Give the backbone structure.
Amino acid sequence: MKPQVFNFQISIQIQKHVQTELSTRFSMGLPGDIIQMNIGQTFQTPLLPKNDFAGRTIIITGANTGLGFEAAKHIYSLNISHLILACRNMTKGEDARRKIITSGKRGKVEVWPLDMSSYSSVLAFGDRIQSLRRLDAFIANTGIDETLEGNESLLTVNVISTFLVAMLAVAKLKQTSEAYQKPSNLVITGSVIHIFAKDKYLADPPPGHIFKTLNRKSAADMDDRYHLSKLLVLLGVRQLAQKLDGTSEPGRTPVIVNCINPGWCKTELFRTHDGGLGGRIGLGLMGRSAEEGSRTLIHGALADATTHGKYVSECRVKPESSFVRSERGVSVEKRVWAELVDILEGIRPGVTNL
């Protein structure tokens, strides 16, 4: 890699946002966030996982392609006893399963249907989880960049359904932790792209109207929506960790929840918005392969309590964006969580009672 790693033009998101927002957001530390991103992306390639998953059960969503598929291959190669691939398309899921088991390991691999754009599908999937004997890790990896279930699709899939399925998995994760006297892991895929989200869309709406405002087509800034969805995910993970702490004995963390940034990877996620010529060049120069990015998900599924409620990038706990760490960000986080809980309770009453 050439030494000019801080050239703003080689990154898709830097190219799109820095020139227009740097002056107004300098006091919030965006330049520092960008430097941290570039150092991690360029110099801190995630390490290959080497742990043994013998005896464990893991579920991974979005498992038939991209990061999810590569992570599933790693998990299977590490002697997993029971691996469940959660996929919207069962045909593609079965094809992924066949490719995964070619290594000759003996672990059981199943494909379960899960359509994150449908709350009824998510609920059915969550109910099925309870039939498992154990669940050691749940990797919520599904993400899209494309309006579903009354909400714009990115909010439905990347945020609401993600936390709905996570809440449904917690009971079995806690049960497993109790039975085997060691923490279980809840991994939620985030993104460094949260540093570029226009936080005004969360801070400006009146109380109780953040999600309603985001769903207004007339005022929607769809160019920012994917970034914003990942900021919402990070805020949600921080609050979920606090809620889990409140249901556990002091000093114990039965379920470790973390927000994992796989980095800027060459996956199908960019098939919708590739950032134009500059984005394609940047991705070619410093983008990770899907396999390299998937290593971070494995780390998240094995991580200890130091990652609980944290933003983890390049398999290291790192500072969230300057906005998330600000007083304003903390206030917005609480408002977002209160609204998200209301939405989830509207889908299934009691689901957030962990």
